[in-house]
Amino acid sequence: MQSRMFLFLLLMGLPATAAPPVYTRDIAPILYKHCASCHRPGEFAPFSVLSYRDVSQHARSISRAVSTRRMPPWLPEHGYADFADERRLTASEIATIGAWTKAGAPEGDPKWLPPTPSPPAEDKPDAVFTMPKPYTIAAHSDDDYRCFVIPLRLEKSVFVRAVEFEPSNRKVVHHALLFADSSGTARKNADASGSYQCFGTPGFLPSASFGGWTPGSGPVRMPDGAAVRVRAGSDLVVQMHFHSRAVDEREQSSVALWFTDQAPTRAVVDVGLVSRNIDIPAGDPDYVVRDHFTIPVDVHAIGIIPHAHYVCREMKGWATLPNGRKQWLIWIRNWDFNWQQQYRYAKPVALPAGTRVEMEFTYDNSGANPHNPNVPPKRVMWGPASTDEMAGLHIQVIPDRMEELHELGQALWGKIMRMVGGGFYRRPE
User: Fold this and answer.
1) What is the structure's pLDDT at 205?
2) Of 199, 368, 349, whose CA–CA distance to 285 is shortest?
3) Of 172, 143, 197, 77, nearest to 310 (Cα)?
4) Both ends of the chain: CA-CA distance in Å?
5) What are φ and ψ of residue 9, in 5° steps?
6) What is the full DSSP assignment across 299-368?
C-alpha cells in the first residue's frame, strides 16, 4: 500500500516525503494567482477564495473543478497558438489542490499567508460615462440582448487608447460589446429607456469598435499606435447580454475612456470568418460549417474572437501560409457559450500576403450534448437568439503598411457583400 502511495505522489508531481499541503503556504498562492480576479467580494463568482473559511467549505468542489479543467475557465487547447494571460493550472498545481483536499483541507500557519491580491492599479481615466437610466431585467425572462445609447457629447473628435466597461450588477451581465455610432441611428432606435432590443448586430454600421467585456476582464488597451478615433457628436452604444434571475434585477453600467493626443499610425482590422449556412436537424451530432478568406496584404494577427451559441461543440481556426505551412490560430475542443471571450496572442502572428485563413465549426444537436437547450432536440437554424446558432471567428489584424489598409478593407467589404447578398444593417423590428 505504501509503495502504491509513493508511486501516486511521484506521478502527480509531489515529493513522496512532503508534508500534506496547507492552505496558507500551498493553496492560497495558487488561488490568488488564478482565481481571485473573479472569486472575490463584489464579483459574480459564488464564493471568495480570499479566506480560508470560504475555501475550505468548497474544497471538494474546487478539487473536482480544477481536476477536470472546468476551472479556471479557459477554452483554447494548449499548444494550438500561444495566448497572453492564459488561465491554465499546471499539473503540479492541480495535484497540490487534490492532495490538500484528501488531507482534510488543513489551514496551516497564518504567517505563511501571502498578501491579499488587489485589482491591478490603473491610471485615472480621462472620462467616465454612465447609462442615463437604470435598466430592469425581469425575473424568469428569456435571455435579453439590448443596446444602450450613452451620449458622449464630444465637441471634437478624440483618440481613445483604452476603454473599460464596468457593470453595476455583475450577476446579470453575461457579456458586453462596445461601439461608437456617428450616424445617430442607435439614438433613433432607442425607446424611453434609452435602449432597444438588438439580437445579433447592433442595428447600425459602427463608426468605431472598442472590443468587449466578459467576467474577469479588465481594461481593453489598444496596441501602440492604434488608438481608436471617435468622431464629434458620436454616441457610445453598449450591447449587453443579460441573464434573468429569480427576482427583478437592475443594471446601470459605466464606461471609462482613456484618451491620447497621438493620432493613430496603425489600424486594427477585423477579419471575420462567418457562416450563415446553419440548418441543423434535430439529433444531428456532427454538423459542420466552414468559411475562408485570403488576406491580400502583409498583416500581423494580435487577437481572435470566436462566437457561437449552445449546440456548437468544436471550433478550429488556422492559416495556410504562402509557403504551405499550417499555422494554428485557435482550437477549442469543447465550446461553452457561458465562457466566450476575446483572446490576445502572446506575440503577434505574422500572416503574409496570400495567406488563407480558415475556420471549421462543428455542432452537436443531439440529446448527448449537455449544453443543448432543447430537450428533446429541435431543428436549429442560423439566427440571433441564444437558442438559434451562429458561426463567427473574428481575427484582429494590423496591416504591416498603413498604405495597404484600403486594399484590405475593400477585400473584406467584398466578402461581406457576397455573404449577405447586398443587404446589410437594418433597423431592428
Assistant:
1) 83
2) 368
3) 143
4) 69
5) -65, -40
6) EEEEEEEEE--TTEEEEEEEEE-TTS-EEEEEEESS--GGG---EEEEEEEEE-TTPEEEEEEEE--STT
d(CA 406, CA 93): 48
CB-side exposure of 81: number of CA atoms within 13 Å? 28
Residue 37 confidence (pLDDT): 81
| Sign of CA pseudo-dihedral 97, 101, 104, 107 | positive
Sequence-ordered list of residues with C-beta below 8 angstroms from that of 352, at least 6 positions apart, any chain: 298, 321, 322
* pLDDT for 47: 85
173-181/135-137 β-pairing: unpaired
Q: Which helix (H) or strand (E) holds 52?
A: helix 52-57
Cell numbers given for 156: 471634437
Instruction: Provide, for the chain, the percentages of residues in helix, strand and coil under a 3-state DSSP scheme, each rounded to the nearest 5.
Output: 20, 30, 50
Contact assessment for residue 152 and residue 234, using Cβ atoms and an 8 Å cutoff: yes
Mean pLDDT in consecutive groups of 10 residues from the start of the chain, 429 residues = 46 59 92 86 80 89 90 90 89 93 91 83 86 88 86 93 89 86 93 87 85 79 90 94 83 93 90 94 97 97 92 97 98 89 92 98 96 94 85 94 92 81 49
Contacts of residue 35, defined as CB under 8 A and 6 or more positions apart, other chains included, come to: 49, 71, 72
**Helical ranges in 176-264 per DSSP H:** 185-189
Cβ atoms of residues 315 and 332 within 8 Å: yes
Report the pLDDT value the prediction gives residue 40, as an integer from 0 to 100.
81
Give pLDDT, residue 2: 42
In this prediction, residue 395 carries a pLDDT of 94
**C-alpha–C-alpha distance, residues 75 and 45, integer Å:** 18
Q: HSE-up of 203 (CA within 13 Å, CB side)?
A: 23
The DSSP symbol for 88 reads -
The three three-digit cell numbers of residue 206, written as one number:
459602427
Predicted TM-score (pTM) above 0.90: no
Report the amino acid identity of residue 140: H
Question: Which residues pair with residue 312 across a beta bridge?
Answer: 363
Which residues, other chains included, contact 169 with Cβ-Cβ below 8 Å and sequence gap of 6+? 249, 250, 251
